[in-house]
Hints:
- 14% of the residues lie in helices and 28% in strands.
- The protein contains eight helices and 25 strands.
- A hairpin with a 2-residue loop joins strand 11 (246-251) and strand 12 (254-255).
- The ligand Nc1nc2c(c(=O)[nH]1)N[C@H]1C(S)=C(S)[C@@H](COP(=O)(O)O)O[C@H]1N2 is lined by residues 111-117, 163, 165, 217, 219, 230-231, 260-261, 273-274, 276-279.
Amino acid sequence: xxxxxxxGICELYADDPERAxxxxxxxxxxxxxxxxxxxAGLAAMGSVVGATIPFHANMPSGLIPAALAESIEDFEIQxxxxxxxxxxxxxxxxxxxxxxxxDDVTPNELFFVRNNGAVTQQAWDQQMNDWRLTIDGEVxxxxxxxxxxxxxxxxxxxxxxxxxxxxxxxxxxxPSPRGxxxxxxxxxxxEWTGVRVADIxxxxxxxxxxxxxxxxxxxxxxxxxxxxxxxxxxxxxxxMMDPHTIVAFKMNGEDIPAVNGFPARLVVPGWxxxxxxxxxxxxxxxxxxxxxxxMTGLSYRVPRYPVAPGDEVPDEDMMVMEGMPVKSxxxxxxSDAETTPGRAFEVRGQAWAGDDEVRAVHVSYDYGATxxxxxxxxxxxxxSWQRWRIDLALPTQGYxxxxxxxxxxxxxxxxxxxxGWNPRGYWNNSAHRIAVRAV
Length: 439
Ligand SMILES: Nc1nc2c(c(=O)[nH]1)N[C@H]1C(S)=C(S)[C@@H](COP(=O)(O)O)O[C@H]1N2
Ligand SMILES: [Mo]
């Protein structure tokens, strides 16, 4: 897989050095225009330059560290492995190669990143001192929660939850819809700690008129226009009241990485990732479907009926995406692996099914002529992905493809070919396949 990179870190610094600082390291500038790094940002820069930085307090802001300026070829994302496939660095978008999704719990440094806008330095500055979560709209009593209140006033839960971008798999569509050309890796399954949105909404008291949520974060539209949201999606109240829909403040037991929504974000598992607002500041309870950025037009919407590839679809025939379809990936071996004829090896991966549970995973190495059923683990909790594995031996020398196909508990399974084309390329759940040579 080639890196489709549009802009590198040097360009980013050339363009707007201080914003680059904030994006790459979360560096905040004080009134003397010194960049000072704290906590995770400092640790990230330390690990990138390979040592602690004794004089970090003196580092000018907007100055790309020389160690990076000299050596960097690929864009580095704060706290992320450089094995991620970077599709864009403004806004930052990076997916995880399938073979690195082999852990049951996706590590923070491997978890994909999908940003529509960017967090400015001013926003970090302000939010780090004074973050609040507002709940308002169709509620009996509006709330403004501090982080302390959020963490102490509600029961905390820790859950493994899958989060997948609605456009995961977009690269498979033809004609190619615009947008990040995700292959299969805009998915992750972290262990999130947070509080239930249902508990917060119950505290505020839902009015009879409450039907939908609208989510806001402190990232900005890339144009810099403060009137425009980078993204503001929502979900029907019954999905928000699901006990697995949470406001998370920990990811795998640590602070959520800056690019994944520190200090708090929604996790609305099983639905298009866009519902899971990062850098969350407000949940607006509404008396109608939300109409924020990303809720209207072609974004995160799909045709109500099958359309021919390339068709234009009238606005009134588009509907908002909700649950994600059943899907699986092969995480071992990695594609292009070699094996020995006749010798058994383990093929394994993960499978998930939006709001539902996976019932079975089948694997083929003869282009679908025959299928074998893999062993499938139950989810550790609802809406987590599920591990599957099977021992296979390839009969003779040669080139094979291994295909994996999951079926959900409603009997729906993954198509072999790319399913219904749609204008923005959502919901591609076609079966994952890898190449293996027996030599
Ligand atoms: N505030 C905000 N929240 C956001 C986004 C964003 O651009 N801004 N992107 C959304 C989309 S489209 C996805 S797929 C998920 C991705 O979450 P991740 O970057 O932690 O993987 O975040 C969602 N939450
Ligand atoms: Mo997304």
